[in-house]
Amino acid sequence: MGVFNRAAVLGSPIEHSLSPVLHNAGYVATGLEGWEYTRIRCEVEELPSVVGGADSSFRGFSVTMPCKFAALDFADEVTDRARQIGSANTLTRIDGGWRADNTDCEGALVALRELLGSTPVRNAVLVGAGGTARAVVWALREAGCERLTVINRSDRSAEFDELTESIDVAFRSFDTDLQETTMQADVVVSTVPADALQGQAAYLGHAPVFDVIYSPWPTPLATCAASNGYPVVGGLSMLAGQSYAQFEQFTGIEAPRDAMRHALLRHWEQSR
């Protein structure tokens, strides 16, 4: 059986990407024949030529750093959530060009639901204010968040205005009373590298924790929260969650979520 439909993940470096594990597992589970998902090393300035020059067999591209902003700029059509978040991790072929979307926000929502179940998120603490944080804010908003405290070294509230119209948001520095702040929260979400919280993790781990990092795992923050008796979830859940909508946009069929997630976790355990 030949390959008639292709998809790939773009970025640099790209060798570490686990997206092929997820998508190829999806093809097998759904019985899709003639589909292939690969990695393509791509620098920011190369994205227009790589995507624009892709032959008709390419149905879509997953996009990782550093190309997420370039993907948004390149697209002929942009979803509302990608525009609000300000970056795209998904390019899907449409009539006349390419549509940009951001499914990282769905991945964050999957992780939050895994962590909290049906428990409502009213008060959240978010650590970091970069691109991933914006996707997380979208997910928190969907989960019903009413009050959000963002812990960051600088006040970037203006960049979050459209995403947080329905949320009471306060930016705070790391000099604030982190323990008091997190003890009042329904969830703490960290979007920063694990070593960026050296000396801070013990003060932040006083609520359920969603840490977007998956390697190394567990992070100091996850360890602190777990030792205090709180549930934790890591970046693998977000990674799996963002792939489902991508799979569905590329193929047009429902993603086999359990099969994709199990393949990812099996690969992760075997590679450790």
- The CATH class label of the largest domain is Alpha Beta
Per DSSP E runs of 2 or more residues, the count of β-strands stands at 12
Terminal CA distance reads: 33 Å
Question: Which residues sit in consecutive blocks of at least 5 with pLDDT less than 50?
Answer: none
With strands numbered from the N-terminus, the spatial order across the biggest sheet is: 2-1-3-5-6-4
Radius of gyration of CA atoms, rounded to a whole number: 19 Å
Subunit organisation of the chains:
single chain
The ordered H/E elements are: EHEHEHEHEEHEHEEHEHEHEHH
Number of helices, where a helix is a run of at least 4 consecutive DSSP H or I residues:
11
Annotated CATH homologous superfamily of the largest domain? Leucine Dehydrogenase, chain A, domain 1
Largest sheet: 6 strands, mixed
How helical, in percent, are the residues? 25-40%
Offer a quick outline of the entry.
39% of the residues lie in helices and 21% in strands. With 272 residues, it is an alpha/beta fold. It folds into two domains: 5-102 and 238-271, 3-Layer(aba) Sandwich (Rossmann fold), CATH 3.40.50.10860; 105-233, NAD(P)-binding Rossmann-like Domain (Rossmann fold, 3-Layer(aba) Sandwich), CATH 3.40.50.720.
